[in-house]
Design a protein that fits this description.
globular, about 400 residues, binds pyridoxal-5'-phosphate, 15 strands, alpha/beta, Aspartate Aminotransferase, domain 2, about 15% strand, 2 domains
């Protein structure tokens, strides 16, 4: 019996794509949205939108209250101690840039920033550029065969000069949970700041900030079934207090004169300008939707889909997976076949997978690959989506091999 997602009908986008003959297997790039998100966006504009934190009129006050309620919802979702620890950004990428500029003043030439070999460009380039600006050393933790950060080597490389560790919780290329708790422990014994890229991790299961105990945690709403244009930067109060303001403008200021200004602390001090109000409200609606799902049923379903994906790959020759994926996404290459040729034939058969370097060029280079194909799953995917994928893969490989 084929797996059938009990939540598929909640996502109009996946149904529309199916009606068009498209099998969507690219949720790690961006996920389809539940009806609740569409309703929220429509309601915000149809009922009269207003800017937040500016006006005392009724629409403005209503929008501000709803906006701040969403901040509380995000903090509850992450089990953060308080809503004041949640900064709304424009996405994970802008959160990393905020961090790299906001923390820049803490580092001295020769200090070490530690990342891993599998980081997405969003959690690589802001640190790389900071290292170049301030003459810091960017240390890269290598991976083991399974695609996990190698803990023995990490223990050697996280040292007395380490001032910051920034690592991904779940790789967007390998689909493998990283040993984040152990790495955070190593970094903390050195007194380093810790940043976790939760862009992929936040989508699967619940992550408790008080247990994870990192200084900063980052994610984008659009991968968590929410709208695009908004991301989250969670920080511990002491870590947030270290951030220097980096973008300047409306509503981040306490007092301003022509020559001087005094800025708000986090979160408002780091949300200069009009925030993405509609997206924040729709993120709140997304969390309402996710909160009413049975977490055990979701986890069991995601695992079952993952198993089907893994069995399909295992049943075919000439396919090499990148590392050992353990949830919801996997990348692969086929002996003697260029990934762009295969991607083209899959596209022609209505299979929407991602092909290329997955914003992780240095990782691909290290693996000796020009690119790979990635299949990624959302909670709306059915077993038949994977059956269609494998059937299309077989047809493509009949032509290419
Ligand atoms: N980190 C990881 C692991 C990702 O997969 C992505 C996006 O694919 C990002 C960061 C950047 O997210 P965004 O493009 O939403 O800013």
């Amino acid at each position: 019996m084929s797996l059938h997602s009990p939540w598929r009908a909640d996502f109009p986008g996946i149904l529309a794509l199916e009606a068009e003959g498209q099998t969507y297997l690219d949720s790690a790039a961006t996920a389809q949205k539940p009806q609740a998100v569409l309703d929220s966006l429509l309601a915000y504009y149809r009922n009269g939108c207003a800017n937040v934190h500016r006006a005392q009129h009724l629409p403005g006050e209503r929008a501000t209250r709803a906006f701040e309620r969403c901040r509380e919802q995000v903090s509850e979702y992450l089990n953060a101690p308080s809503a004041g620890q949640i900064i709304f950004t424009h996405g994970a990428t802008s959160a990393f840039n905020l961090l790299a500029y906001g923390l820049e003043h803490l580092f001295r030439p020769g200090d070490e920033l530690v990342i891993s070999a599998l980081e997405h460009h969003a959690n690589l380039l802001p640190w790389q550029q900071l290292a170049i600006r301030q003459n810091l050393k960017l240390v890269v933790l290598p991976l083991d065969q399974s695609g996990r950060i190698d803990l023995d080597q990490a223990a050697q490389l996280i040292g007395p000069r380490t001032r910051l560790l920034a690592i991904s919780q779940l790789s967007n290329v390998i689909g493998c949970w990283q040993p984040v708790a152990e790495l955070l422990r190593m970094a903390k014994t050195r007194g380093a700041l810790t940043v976790v890229d939760g862009a992929q991790g936040v989508v699967h299961g619940r992550h408790d900030m008080q247990k994870l105990d990192c200084d900063f945690y980052v994610f984008s709403s659009h991968k968590l079934y929410g709208p695009d244009g908004v991301g989250v930067l969670y920080g511990k109060p002491a870590a947030l207090a270290k951030l220097k303001h980096w973008q300047f403008g409306g509503e981040m200021v306490q007092v301003a004169d022509y020559q001087l200004a005094k800025f708000n602390p986090a979160p408002l001090g780091f949300e200069a300008g009009t925030p993405p109000v509609s997206s924040v409200l729709a993120l709140g609606a997304t969390l309402d939707y996710l909160n009413q799902l049975d977490p055990q049923a979701v986890e069991a379903y995601e695992q079952a889909l993952h198993q089907q994906l893994m069995s399909g790959f295992a049943a075919r020759d000439h396919i090499t997976l990148l590392g050992e994926p353990n949830i919801a996404l996997a990348s692969f290459v086929v002996d003697g076949v260029h990934h762009t040729d295969l991607a083209q034939l899959l596209t022609e058969q209505g299979i929407a997978v991602r092909a290329g370097q997955h914003c992780a060029m240095p990782l691909m280079k290290q693996l000796g690959l020009s690119g790979a194909i990635r299949v990624s799953l959302g909670l709306y995917n059915d077993g038949t989506d994977l059956e269609r994928f494998f059937s299309a893969l077989d047809s493509a490989l009949d032509i290419l091999r």
